[in-house]
Amino acid sequence: MRLAAVFIPEGVLKYIFGENHKGYTLNLGGKYNYEYTEKNGLPIKTNQVLNTDFLDNFWGEDLLLVSALVGANGTGKSSVLNLFRNNSFCYFIYENLKSDEIEVYNNTELINDVIYYTPFLNIENHNSVNGNFKDISKYELMLEDTENESIGLSAQLELHNSENLKRWIKFRQITGIETFLRDIKLPIFDSVKIKLNYISITEHDTPNNFRPFFKKFKEIKESENNRRFEELRVSHPNRREFRVNRNFGNSIRLEFLILERVIDKVQNVLESSGNKYLNEGYIRGNKNSNSPEFTEISDLKEAFYWFIENAFIQLSEDSEKILFPVQEIKLLTDLLLVNIPKDNEIENWAELNVSLDATQDIFNAYEKFIISFKDDFSFDRKILLTFIPDKNLSSGEKGMYDLFSSLHDYQFKVEENILEEYNMYSRRKEHNNNYLLLLDEAEMGFHPQWKKRFINSILKLFPFIFPQKKIQILFTTHDPLTLSDIPKSNVIFLDRSPTSNLTYVLNETEKAKKRTFGANIHDLLADSFFLQDGFMGEFAEELIIDLVNYLTFKEEDGERGLKNIKEWDEIKAEKVIAIIDEPLIKERLQSLFYKKFRYNEKELLRLKIQELNIQLTKLENEKN
């Protein structure tokens, strides 16, 4: 079944179309265009006309239809998409793919699984869903990524960024995906850089009994570092190799840096908890940093592990001991250490370069590490690890990875039957084979080149992400580059009345005058639907008009008796004219400038004749 139209009865969207608005039938570009009305609470078809622009399999074998909802900001595009989210009192007209039969439903639940995506944080519609509607917007993913943990914003963002890159990696590891990524010119990353961030320590609120240990860690590190480098020199009698190879010993440096950063992070968690534990820190057996059990340790990792295993906080003799999350600290530290490459492979010993598989393990350990402090300590906002793909990606390329990986993650969870639903009304026993994808300004913020590629990219990758599914796409946009890939019969135009300021839907007659598919970008922009009052930026336009007034009229009057906005003089006027790149405007301003400051009209005319004679001579010479 193909969703061909949506009927919005009279008065359903009052906050968009106004009180007692007429009913609207939104045609999506199916085989027929429809008109509906409502009588006695039931939808009545009043017209059905063949869509002469419709082509079967135009988008691909499993891509049933691609439609666009277009309008300026504030016309209600997102509100129209919300009709699919809950009980909207609208009607959905479906066409049978093998016949001319149609079916009308008051929801999409029997036919479609509806997936909503937007890259924006939008909390207005959280949890407002039907059973067949899945929201994978930025806000919903942040909630899922943090598993609704009651942690601070900094920690939430850290967890979300970690989970987001995990989705990227899972998408990147699809068998055969490289061919598709190359086809759409999306950069392919093969590994991940893990940057170890510097964490400054003020040491105001670390428990007094713990401070000597953190001081000893620095001494142990210095001693062990010197010892191991000396052993390295002895094991390489060829001193020239030691001097020439600039990567020599980098694995040792990176190992100590990992340990230092983890130790600093743990201490900073204590600092962030305030002075409530200042005198409540203890070591099992009343030991201290001078106890033989500790002083005999010459290995930094071993010394740190001894400390977190034996240290505890106790507010009173009768209270429970607060322990460090030893397992989580060790797991993260050991995973980072085991992924240290050999010397020759380390260019920058302030970061790790690890495979996609290893990154997944480190991600999981890092998330457990972050959450493990939340119950008994205040979470430290300083970020220990930053994960970066080994390819530099633009914001548009990151946006494409976000879109594709989020959709792939959804499909993976459906196939594995692990899709988590926090709303009891959205839980389902089975899923439909027809997917309706709602993309709400998914290309916003993209570079124009990526906006140009957007539709082609999703057409190629969506069937790969959703194998054996029938896919229909409805997206919102107000970008002409994206719209130039969509036939106008598949476009719903929303506009705003200049008198009532209410939104209305363009009818078929008004729509027929529009140009979309394959249209030149200049033609699209020239349509006042996209851009009013010309192509020039308002700042430049205002400045040029003001300059024309200055060059044309008396300074004290300006055009129509208005004063000039800026203070002009000959030098400033000449410099502004010099930076104008539109040749016709520039020539006109130069003429006005010369008339005001250099020549009289007769002299200007003589110069113009001279310039034209030069051009004429040049053309005659080229002809000969």
From TrEMBL:
Q: ATPase AAA-type core domain: which residues?
A: 67-484
State the InterPro entries in the record.
Answer: ATPase_AAA_core (IPR003959), P-loop_NTPase (IPR027417)
Return one GO MF term.
ATP binding
Identification of the protein by name? AAA family ATPase
Q: Which organism is it from?
A: Mariniflexile litorale
